[in-house]
Amino acid sequence: MKYILKDKWLWIDIDTLFYKTVQDFMDALIPSKKMQHLCITNGWIMMDDIKVKRESRLDGKTLQILLYPNTNAYEKVEKDDIDIVYEDELVLIVNKEKGLLVHSDDGQITLNDQVRSHYRHKNYYDLNPIHRLDKETSGLLMYSKSCIFQPLLDEYLNQRSIRRTYYAFVKGKMNKGEKLSIDEPIGKDRHTSGKMIVYKKGQEAHTKVESLGYKNNVTALKCTILTGRTHQIRVHLSYMGYPILNDPLYGVSYPSLSCMGLVAKELVFYHPLKEENMKVSAELSEELKGLMLK
Fold it and tell me: Residue 227 has what pLDDT?
């Protein structure tokens, strides 16, 4: 589709759409029934500056959607110099540093706090993470900027059409190019709070692994998750005999490395406005690059 952003409104050229009615458009791109209702009743979706009904046919020039309908109370935090890797009208992708929680319920400053503080002067953005990263895991995290399209991004995640690839640095040898497919269910460890284990009655979990090379008893692994279980990669690799360096729960100590050896390296996703697959990658730190086979 062809579109432009005017102030907070997304103007879409109707001639570039393949839907017959407003309802058809909303069913495809705004899957939340609640959000559809708000768009119609509040006039957040219009055609050629005129309010529409669900059954209105798309036969005008432009379909207009109020992309940012809300005003939020984003507060300033001390550190909000976030590492933005990619940004457009709809999504924001940031590079999370190690040791930072995405969410918190105990008053700690989180990545969410930093992101919202950074955009407090554009407080009409509805900045909410689409997925999560563990506290000690660094790398890419996607945010939605619009409450209108967040349900669609959430659906993409649930349908596994947002593909997340990690680099894990583990103890042990796996020859370059060697692959593993780990299909072991994961559940809570009843004996240790906050820890997960491979458990036959747990939730299904699928991780695909490929070795990028072996050096000095450390293997660099490319890991793609097909499910999003808590600590999934960490649990699966430890279970298979490849503990992640400096993982405090499942791994092994590696004093010469200042972080845990797990990075959310790449996001691949379909962009509903650009109508194309996007790939966003993060740079490895210099010390992690040093562990890679040259």
Answer: 86
Which uninterrupted H or E stretch holds 128? strand 128-129
The one catalytic residue in 113, 126, 134, 247 is 134
**Distance between CA 14 and CA 63 in Å, rounded?**
6
Which H or E element spans position 153? helix 150-158
pLDDT above 80 (res 293) = no
Does 189 participate in catalysis according to the annotation?
no
The answer on pLDDT for 294 being more than 70 is no
Average pLDDT of span 230-250: 96
Render pLDDT for 188-226 as a digit per residue (tens, 0 to 9).
Answer: 999 898 899 999 999 999 999 999 999 888 999 999 998
List, in order, residues 6 or more apart from 228 with CB less than 8 Å away.
131, 132, 157, 164
4: left (phi over 0), alpha (psi -120 to 50) or beta: beta
Query: From the centroid of its chain, how far is CA 93?
Result: 8
